[in-house]
Each structure stands twice: as structure tokens, then as C-alpha cells.
Amino acid sequence: YSSEGSVRDARELAENLGIAFETIPITEVFNAYRAGLAESFRGRAEDATEENLQARVRGNLLMALSNKFGALTLTTGNKSELSVGYCTLYGDMAGGLAMLSDVPKTMVYALAEQINVMHAEGGGGREVIPRASIVKPPSAELRPGQTDQDTLPPYEALDRILRDYVEEMMSPDEIAEKERLPLKTVEDIALKVDHNEYKRQQAALGLKITSKAFGIGRKFPIAQAYRPRSRARVPADS
Q: What does the CA dihedral 222, 226, 232, 235 come to, rounded to 10 degrees?
């Protein structure tokens, strides 16, 4: 479901950077997976399973290229996505180095803007990073019309919650009050962070840039019963 715009932006970026660009269709392989699972999945509607299959097909192809040509595969997930589990094990998480794993999504955009400014000021002319890839609604493009904000708050709000929860170790109550956000929204994000520790402990090594990166900087038990309780849900006589 990669949009024409995404393919065009990727090609333009590769040309601007002077790196190789290749398109490898996954439709045939994806359909083979679906055919192989058809009997087991009979009577069940398509859901995130089929979305993840696409990411895993891509991961396998990227690792095959890595093996054949001796290249290091870079995973693409940023800190915001890894925090809430917007990444697929053995899919877009397949690789040897997670360049952006400690870079929040909003900082990715800010860095892209800064790179373009520096390039222009240096006499490079047009922007290195295509403007369309910066301004379009973020999407994994694993189903038609999908956007990240279908199930997440806008990244401007999400990254504030994640900074407070992960780096400042604030409670959902404190975050909701500080950021003036609905407590339910903050609690949902906190649970997503906790529930996806199992993914992060299987992730590629990352580069640390913030005060608290995932991994050595913040490693929680995968199986644990603790849940942060908000004041609003604690009985008055408890």
C-alpha cells in the first residue's frame, strides 16, 4: 500500500544524496503468505496480522540484501514509535543498528527541516529532504488511507507525554496536569509504553542522544503486574 508520493519522495531523496535506489515489489510474496495461511485464517477478517506480514516480508528482503552484499541494515523506528509499539518484530525492526531509536518523531521533523536549511545556506540549492515527506500525515501505509493519528494523539502531544513518562518518570496524573491533556489519553499511552517493553528488548542497538534512552538507560521487566494508578481511580477511603 505504499503511496505513489512515498515512492517518489524516496527516489528523490536517494537522488539528492547520491545513493542507490531500487524498487522490489512485495505483492507476490505477500500473497503467497496469505495463501499459505488461508485455511488457518478461514472465517477471520483481515487485521493487523496482514499489516505485519507486509513489514516482515520487507524485513526478510532487506536482510537478504544485507547478507548478499555485506551491508548493514538500518532499522527505521524513532523513539516515539518504539515507545508505543508502532513497530513490527522481524519486520521494520529487523536490522543491525537503530539510528533513530532515541530520536522522538517531532525531533526527526525538526532535524529534517534543519538539514534542509543548512543545505540551502551552504549553497546547495534545493532541499535535500523532499518537502512532501515532511508535511504529509505520517503513516505506516499498511492499509488504504491509514494514518498514525487513527490510534495515537498528534505527535506534538504524544512526544510531550513520552518525555515526561520515560525521561522524567512522571506519573500519568502529573503528566495530565502539567500538559493539560485528558488523563485517559495519558494513561493509554503509559500502558502502551509498558506493554511494549518486550519489543524494545529485542530491538537493534541504538544511538543515545536524550537523557534516558531505551535499553541500558531504561529497562523494565517484560512480565510485571505493576500499573500506575491515577488519583482519580483511588477510593477516598483507601
A: 160
